[in-house]
Design brief:
The chain is mainly alpha-helical. α3 packs across α5. The longest helix has 33 residues.
Length: 111
């Protein structure tokens, strides 16, 4: 998968949805900002949680967007790999497959 192109397509689809249902999109955006705000848990750790949940829920878009955000927050490849390991432990074989996708996304988007 070409992660950069995949996220560009996903962003275009989200933009169309924002125009079709602006209040819903605005509400989700507010939820995102509140959930990811720095607090007792750092943004870096929250992004790793988002990646683990994206893997467990088998959501390529979630994996891509949160890997990109994790890179911006300073997460390392080793932290991504450990997060994938926890997701695999909790989610079994399907999480192994989507975890491999998350590592691929990190490798493509961190260069």
């Amino acid at each position: 998968m070409d992660w950069k192109n995949h996220l560009a397509e996903a962003s275009a689809n989200l933009s169309k949805f924002r125009k079709a249902a602006p209040e819903t999109a605005k509400g989700f955006g507010a939820l995102s900002q509140a959930a990811l705000a720095e607090g007792h848990v750092s943004l870096r750790h929250k992004e790793l949680m988002c990646i683990a949940i994206g893997i467990a829920k088998q959501c390529d878009d979630c994996i891509g967007f949160h890997v990109k955000a994790a890179i911006a927050a300073g997460v390392t490849r080793e932290e991504i790999a450990e997060t994938i390991s926890v997701a695999m432990y909790m989610g079994g074989g399907p999480s192994f497959m989507y975890g491999a996708r998350a590592l691929e996304a990190f490798d493509q988007m961190s260069v």
